[in-house]
Each structure stands twice: as C-alpha cells, then as structure tokens.
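Reading a protein record of the kind used here takes only a little practice. Each token is a code from a learned vocabulary of local backbone shapes. With that in mind, consider the following protein and its fold in token form:
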Amino acid sequence: MKPFTTRPPAPLTLLMALYALLGIAAIARAVTTQTVDMFSLGVIPVLIGLLWRASWASLVLKIYIGLETLGLSALGIVAIVAHYVSPKTIENVRFMDLPISIPWVALLCVGLITAQVWVAFHSSTKAYLSPSEPSID
C-alpha cells in the first residue's frame, strides 16, 4: 500500500498552475468579450476537481484533454484546407504584428497535449487522486 500523499506531484502541480493561468485568461476573455465558450472555460471545473481531489477529477481531466485534442485536430484540419485554398493567407498569419510560423504552433500544440496526457496517466497522478484507504490500527 502506497502512503497517502497530501501534496500533488510536481508534474500535476505544473499542470494545475497552467490550468490556473488558462482559467484566469478564460474568465478575463469572457468578461471582456461578453461571450462564453466551454473550450476555454472548461478548464475551471477540471482545476477545481484537481484541487479538491474529487473522485471525478481524473475522469474530467481525461475528458477535457480529449476535447482539447479533438478541438485542436479540427483547427489543424481547417488550417490544412485553408492552406490549399489560399496559401498566401496562411503564410501571412500575424499576432500582435508578429508573424506566426504555423509549423511551430502545431509542434507547440502537440507538445502541450502530449505533456497533459503524460501527466493525466502518470502513476503519481493516479496515486494522488485515488481516495485514501482507511487503516485499521
């Protein structure tokens, strides 16, 4: 029997910090644009479940990562189709007047999804989120 851990493991702590930043950005975006979407605000229940060590946290984390993967795959397909329809448009993508390299963005997205999947299925995350077993002394 593994000892009951009170602190989240380091990879999960980093993921929770990332989700906290994304949650703050999602709330700020919702307030400024007056629109709500589940793709960005969906991180908030995941973060709450991880902080509370809820019994459903692991399942919700994996579902959220699956939804992220599905959404980013759809965006990737749209980018590929847009590139074939109008290559000049894709080559001139800019953010805050800086050119964006689409292959680097794709690599970053794949890296982020891979890291989240690794953390979600890591044994230390499972041990942290599994309920403590009562001991008979």
User: Anything to note?
Assistant: The helical segments are 10-33, 38-41, 43-52, 57-85, 87-91, 102-121, 123-129.
